[in-house]
Structure formats: C-alpha cells, structure tokens
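Structure (tokenized):
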C-alpha cells in the first residue's frame, strides 16, 4: 500500500516531467563539477603531501604542471572502471600512443571526466537555447556521446598515427641496421647507432630502439626485448623480425645475413601491399562514379534531346 501511495503521489503531482528531469540532470552535473573543483584544489594544495615532504626534509620544488597533474590524478577514480581487463586495454593503448608515464591512465580518465562535465553543461545550454527546435534531442545525444567517448576516439587516432609513423620508419631502420652490422659493429651497438641516426627523421622509432638497447644492456634477452617492442608499438610487421632474430641467436647464425633476408622479405611485403591498394582503387571508384559522375553525364548527353522531344510533343 505504501509503494502504491508513493507512485500515485508522483503520478498525480506530475513531478516526472521533462523540465524536472532536465533540472535533475543540471543538479547532478553541478554536484560533479563542485566535486571536481574540490579534488583539483586538494590535488594542488594537498596537506598530506606537504606533511610527508616536510617529514622527509624535501624541498617543495614541484612545478605548476606537476601540481596540475596531481590534481587531475585525484579526479580519475570517479571515471576509472572496475573491470581490470578494460583498464589494461586502455593502458596498452596509451603505451602504443607514446604515453609511457605511470600516471597516464589516471590522467586519461581525469580528462574523460572533464569532457563528460563539459558535455553535461553543453547539453543543458542546448536545451535552453533550442527548445523550439525539433533537432534538440539529437543534438543533446550527440554532445553527450562526444563527451563520453571523445577521449577514446582521440586516443585511437593517436595510436593509429603513431603506428603509421613507426611502420613507415621500419624500412630505413632495417637498411641502416644491415649496413652497421655488416661494417663490423655488434648488434646492440648497431641498434644504438641506428636510433641516434633516426632521432630527427623518425623520433618515435628512435625512442623505441633506445628502449630496446637499454633493456638488452640491462640483461633482457634480445628476442624478449623485441617482443616487448612489438607490444609497445602494435606494429605486427615486426613479429617476423623477432622470430628470425630469435632463431638466429639460438642456432648461432649470422645476424647480418638474417637482417638482410628479412629486409628483402619486408620490401616484398610492402610492394605487395601497395599493389593490393592499387587493385582496390577501381572498385572504390565505382560508387562515386555511379552516384556523382554518371548522373551529370546523362544530364549533359540526354538533356538537350529530352528538351527537344518535350517541345515537339507539346
């Protein structure tokens, strides 16, 4: 009886109206904004961090960017998902995009929270300014969708761009590596030299090669270091290089000859990929021609004749 009475009370008083739901959304957005501002203030001027630094005797020399980063980290727990698999997936994407900092995941979710709040406020503004428009619900849905999934789309684009940059730099790196190894340099020294040579033209690959050199010098086996390189970059074309180097290191084969063979094989694969793209062009051109070019052609070719025919029939 009590539940029915509460339901009838809401139904009779018309509390669940469109305006009330909008006001509820504004209230939730305001609460989240106030909490975010409070977390930013606590992150910038955290008394706990100041107390720890004073106990350790450290001088507070942190820059404003570091303080802002700490403030954004405090905002991250609101948006961090409970699924460990999803967190690991986002962390892998951040690494492939070139963000190797341990706090990158927290900063990403903090930025995502900010975009969600901006989307809420823009949705509220759209509701107030476009009440008479029939497109208002669609615009609000698009704003909310961009605010929620926009950071993921940007991250995916950054990953794709970095993969393309590294993929384009691999042939030059392989050619330089073959030249260095055949000139008498050891593999690690040759890898370091290639990284130094590519620092200007291909900085992304040069950074990854320096990381591989550091891992090998630290005692990590060469195949393992290159497998980690594939995981960090997401460039699957390097898997064949990892396999060939692993086999050469196990059987004691010549690394220079292995690199030369892989370079020729990689060059053939690039040629085949270019031929495949060229073969797909006629099929892709068919739809624009049918939709745009052929109607114009028929208008120009048949238009005067049809006009003459209609005049004759009159």
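Design, position by position:
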């Amino acid at each position: 009886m009590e539940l029915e009475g509460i339901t009838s009370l809401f139904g009779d008083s018309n509390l669940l109206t469109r305006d009330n739901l909008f006001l509820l959304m504004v209230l939730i957005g305001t609460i989240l904004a106030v909490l975010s501002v409070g977390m930013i203030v606590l992150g910038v001027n955290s008394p706990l961090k100041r107390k720890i630094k004073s106990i350790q005797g450290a001088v507070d020399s942190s820059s404003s960017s570091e303080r802002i980063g700490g403030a954004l980290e405090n905002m991250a727990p609101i948006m961090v998902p409970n699924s460990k698999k999803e967190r690991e997936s986002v962390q892998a994407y951040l690494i492939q995009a070139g963000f190797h900092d341990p706090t990158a995941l927290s900063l990403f979710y903090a930025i995502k929270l900010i975009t969600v709040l901006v989307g809420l406020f823009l949705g509220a503004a759209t509701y107030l300014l476009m009440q008479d428009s029939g497109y208002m619900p669609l615009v609000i849905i698009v704003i909310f969708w961009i605010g929620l999934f926009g950071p993921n789309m940007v991250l995916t684009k950054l990953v794709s761009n970095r993969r393309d940059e590294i993929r384009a730099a691999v042939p030059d790196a392989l050619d330089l590596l073959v030249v260095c190894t055949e000139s008498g340099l050891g593999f690690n020294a040759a890898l370091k030299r290639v990284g130094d040579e590519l620092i200007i033209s291909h900085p992304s690959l040069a950074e990854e090669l320096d990381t591989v050199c550091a891992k090998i010098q630290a005692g990590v086996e060469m195949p393992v270091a290159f497998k980690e390189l594939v995981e960090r970059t997401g460039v699957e074309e390097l898997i064949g290089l990892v396999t060939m180097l692993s086999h050469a290191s196990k059987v004691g084969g010549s690394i220079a000859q292995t690199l030369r063979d892989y370079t020729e094989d990689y060059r053939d694969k690039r040629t085949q990929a270019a031929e495949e793209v060229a073969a797909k062009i006629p099929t892709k051109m068919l739809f624009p021609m049918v939709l745009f070019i052929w109607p114009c052609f028929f208008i120009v070719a048949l238009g005067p004749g049809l006009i003459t025919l209609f005049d004759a029939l009159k």
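Reviewer-requested clarification: Residues 15-45+84-162 form one domain. The first helix runs from residue 2 to 13.
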